[in-house]
Amino acid sequence: MGNFLKKKNNRRSFLKKTALLSTAAAFSTFIPKKIKAAKTYNWKMVTTWPKNFPGLGTCAEIFAKMVNEGSDGKMNITVFGSGEIVPAFEAMDAVSSGAIEMGHGGPYYWKGKVAAAQYLSAIPFGLTPQEQNSWFEKGGGQEIADKIYEKMGCKFFVCGNTGPQMGGWYNKEIKTIEDYQGLKMRAPGLGGEVIKAAGGTVVNIHGGELLTSIQSGAIDALEWVGPYNDLAFGIHKAAKYYYYPGWHEPAAILDCFINLKKWNSLPNNLKKIIALSAKAATQQMTNEMIAGNNMALKTLLNKHGVKVKPFPDEVLKKLAILSNKVLNKLSSSDELSKKVYKSIIKFRNDSIKRSENQKKFLETRMKYVNYEK
Ligand code: CA
What we know:
Layout: H1 3-30, E1 41-47, H2 57-70, E2 75-80, H3 91-96, E3 102-105, H4 118-121, H5 129-138, H6 141-150, E4 154-161, E5 168-170, E6 184-186, H7 189-197, E7 201-203, H8 210-215, E8 221-222, H9 227-233, E9 241-244, E10 253-259, H10 260-264, H11 268-303, E11 307-310, H12 313-331, H13 335-368
Parallel strand pairs: 1-2, 1-3, 6-7, 6-8, 9-11
Antiparallel strand pairs: 3-10, 4-10, 5-8, 5-9
Helix pairs in contact: 2-11, 5-6, 6-13, 7-12, 9-11
Bound molecules: calcium ion.
């Protein structure tokens, strides 16, 4: 082999080696030496409900499971019932302070911290469940709620809706508005303010103490939610009359509140998973409440012989007049309350005309149509 050929061969093997090396180098830029593992978040959620309480406690569990599975284990939320880590009404303090990352309850439980929060739960004679969910999503409710919860150091999400509630359990008949004089009743939120205006005494007791309070005679009446939840607490064992409609809470949302600093520290994908899970859990709870109330009302009527009664029209009319007075006075007490109240009332008033369709349909279905089983 001549020098020329030798050189050529050397050059060829050099090129070959270089090509291999550069290919490897090219690959190495695409294959990270070590895939950086995404951070795993192990969060606690404290609630105002007994662990796994139907509809309310289970909504928190459903939400947590959706987040845990949706994030493929990158965010693990463990749910605690009331009293397991903190008492029911101390859930907000625990989350505001950052001791616990998130909580689940009802906005009106926090009215002592920010008065405007109670309007987010429900307004007497206000919105139906569908209207309320729509107000939060399309009527500016989310933005206002975020401003309210920011004052408590939290991010806000709707996470559940009870559906239309019942008017409550009474141990005496309500025939006139005067029957509220001196009545001691568990009734939280704005509805409770109206009961006070009617001459009643209002106490706020969390779910776990309802039955013993009415059994012992500490209270004469109570409202909790509806058949599904009320049956679970056995309230029919201690109260005579079950009234409707739930004028005070025609629907009520539950809140998911997250410590704002912890929320801001989350990557965007986990923020999105939380937001979507809260929405999906709200829908799932709404569905569960309808099916659960259908069954539980049958049980209360047929098995326990509960006396279900409508409030007399005259009583409802007077409660409506009182509601108007109470809400006008309360909502003008601070700017944020005024803002949230006006926004909900606008949405409510815009909804009246459209809801005639639903009203007529429900009346017709009830009166004239009886399909065979
Ligand atoms: Ca209620």
